[in-house]
Amino acid sequence: MRIAILEDDPDQMALLKHWLSETGHDLHCHLTGNEMIKYAGRESFDLFVLDWQVPDVSGADVLRWIRANVSKSTPVLFVTVRDAEEDIVFALNSGADDYMVKPVRRQELLARVGALLRRAYPQKEETRFAFPPYEFDTERGEARINGGLVDLTPKEFELAALLFRNLGRLMSRGHLQEAVWGRMGDLATRTVDTHVSQVRKKLDLRGESGFRVTSVYNYGYRLEQITEAPAQ
Q1: Which of 12, 93, 89 shows the shortest CA–CA distance to 49?
Q2: Domains and CATH numbers, the chain
Q3: What is the pLDDT of residues 171-214, one digit of tens each?
C-alpha cells in the first residue's frame, strides 16, 4: 500500500519508515504540514500517518484539509505525543480513524495499520473477485468478460485488477506506477498512460459494459461504474 507520513523528528521518521517498509508498503515522508498538503494535492495514497506537532501547519490542520479537499474515506492514523483525552476526541471527531500515543510499539503499529487498510480496502485480500461482466483471478493472472478470457499482458492485468479493486476512486499516475511497476524513477509517465489505454481498449471500459475509465488532467485516472451490470 502507498502510505504518506507526516513526522518532523528524523529518528522517529526513520523508525516508522523502517517498520512499515518491512511489510511491503511504499512510504512517502514529509517533515512539514505544508509539504504534506502540497504533495497530497497531486498524489493519491492508501493511508495517511500524521504527527500533530510539526512545523508550519499542524497535523490536526492537515487532517481537516485532507477531509475537505482529498478524501473523506482514506484512512488517517495519528501518531503523536499528545495524550490528553480532549486531543484524542478532537482528532477522532475531526475525521481521524485511529490514534496512537508515542512511544509506539512496532507490532501494535503494524496491527493498527493493517486493520485500517483491511477495513478500507477489503477486496485487496481476495484472489478472486468479480464486477459482472468482469471476473479476475490474481493467482492465475486471468481476466474474463462474460466468461471469456481476455488477452492481457502481466502489467495490463495488474493495472486492470488495481483499477477494479479501487472502483470509483481517483488514483494518481504516481500511485498507479508504484503499485504496478514499483518505485522506478526512470519510468516515463507515458508508460502508465499507454497501459491504461490498452486496458480501456481490451476490456471495453468506455461505458457500453457499464464501466468506464476517465482521466483527470495532470493527475490520474478513475474507473467508474455508470450503469447496473448488464443482463447475462
Answers
A1: 12
A2: 2-120 (3.40.50.2300), 124-225 (1.10.10.10)
A3: 999 999 999 998 765 566 789 999 999 999 999 998 888 999 99
The CA distance from 6 to 18, in Å, is 15
d(CA 46, CA 29): 14
Task: Copy the grid coordinates of residue 106.
Answer: 512496532
Please state, in angstroms and rounded to a whole number, the distance separating the CA atoms of residues 124 and 88.
29
Strand, coil or helix: 101 = strand
What pLDDT shows up at residue 184? 61
The helix-helix angle for 189-202 and 173-181 (nearest 10°) equals 80
Residue 75 contacts residue 47 (beta carbons within 8 Å): yes
What single DSSP character describes residue 52? S
Q: How far apart, in whole angstroms, are the C-alpha atoms of residue 192 and residue 210?
A: 23
N residues, the chain: 232
pTM score of the predicted model: 0.87
How many angstroms separate the CA atoms of 26 and 172, rounded? 14
**Residues 6 or more apart whose Cβ sits within 8 Å of residue 171:** 44, 162, 163, 220, 221, 222
